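Data card: per-record layout.
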Amino acid sequence: MTSEGTLEQLQRDIQSLKDRAAIQEVIMRHCRGVDRHDVELMNSCYHPDGAPATAPRSSTHRTRAHAVSSSTPSGIGTASRSGTSTCSA
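The structure for this 89-residue chain is written out next.
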């Protein structure tokens, strides 16, 4: 392999790592939004026209995020922003 070919391969490898890190950041942001019941944070993970693959076809990501955040009964293993959890069961 020539030095030019090696350089091109390194550039592709670096771009692949940067893409992977960006995807992981979106996944972590979505998880944080679910944990905190933060609809806006969850919505920030989707393209404005996008919807999660698990949503019904007529649903948008905004209604899906709202459904996820409002479906957990209060007091059942939910974490507060201070990091403490509550359990009334």
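Known properties of this structure: Residues 72-89 have pLDDT under 50 and may be disordered. The chain has one domain: 3-70.

See the next section for split statistics.
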